[in-house]
Amino acid sequence: APHPVTTKTYASRAASHPNSTARRLLETMERKKTNLCVSVDVTKSAEILDIVRQVAPYVCMVKTHIDIVEDFTIDLAHELRRLADELDFVIFEDRKFADIGNTVELQYSSGVHKIASWSHLTNAHVVPGPGIITGLGAAGKPLGNALILLAEMSSAGNLASGEYTEKAVQMAREAGLDWVVGFIAMHRVDKADDPDFLVITPGVGLDVRGDGRGQQYRTPHEVVHDSGCDVIIVGRGIYKNKDAVAAEAKRYQEAGWKAYEERLQR
Ligand code: 5BU
Q1: Strand partners, 122
Q2: Residue 197: helix, strand or coil by DSSP?
């Protein structure tokens, strides 16, 4: 049976959310009628900013891998943050932290990237145990940021399943919704009486089922309607064809929103 939360609107979920980043995300989704997050996995600052400007009308969130940028300066991060306010989206740095609490706090707040200062949302593996959540929280909570945990992955043969996934959900419950707001997962991993977690889902494509390197794609309908996920993450499906970036973003926005509206009818 579908999780009860899947029939609630994004707006109603925003209204009662204790975390300001999750609230902003859910409000943005409702206002712009989009559950699309574009993953901008290109290596030049100018190209990142160009794609972000093109997709902005169709997204609730932009996802980065800041460590792939060859000409990174902190100006890029500041410009992304400025665009997030001007063009109305949330920033998700897909950092996948995976170390002890003390180290991840430093990796999150310091170094050249200073992720906590500009990325509203980031994510962490649960393999180190709950210390990773408190370590990141020391840097991110005072800034109003949010954290999601990797409960599942999209790639073939990954080990995040079964008991591992259940333990990730248990760790989120214990952390509190004011900091850990949900999961990277392929389906609703939470239970009916859980807090209102967000399920954010990569591995989304309308045209192909894989990339030959382990990625596995499902359609927005499979992800949002059938599996009850909240946000679809699309990378190459949108930015690969340089002449159709805005058109592809619109296509995924429409497909994702239609799947959400159909889910509300269940
Ligand atoms: P794609 O081009 O749509 O395949 O990109 C997917 C993005 O999502 C890419 O940045 C990955 O690093 C990211 N991702 C993923 O594909 N699967 C996962 O389980 C997680 C992240 Br977590």
Answers
A1: 93, 147
A2: coil
What are the Cα distances from residue 195, in Å, to 174, 200, 226?
A: 11, 15, 21
Q: Is 235 annotated in some ligand binding site?
A: yes
Does residue 93 contact residue 61 with C-beta atoms inside 8 Å? no
pLDDT value, residue 4: 66
User: Residue 118's CB: how many other CB atoms inside 10 A?
Assistant: 22
Would you tell me how many other CB atoms lie within 10 Å of the CB of residue 239? 24
40: left (phi over 0), alpha (psi -120 to 50) or beta: beta
For ligand 1, say whether the CB of 64 is within 6 Å of any of its atoms. no
Residues in the chain with pLDDT values less than 50: 1
Report CA(203)–ligand 1 centroid distance (Å): 6
Our separate counts of H helices and E strands in the chain read: 11, 8
Annotated active-site residue in 88, 99, 194, 211: 99
Return the best residue to mutate from 41, 91, 204, 236 for the ligand 1 pocket (most ligand atoms within 8 A of CB). Answer: 41
ipTM: 0.99
What is the bridge-based pairing of β-strands 146-150 and 121-124? parallel
CA distances for 96 relative to 128, 149, 204, angstroms: 12, 9, 19
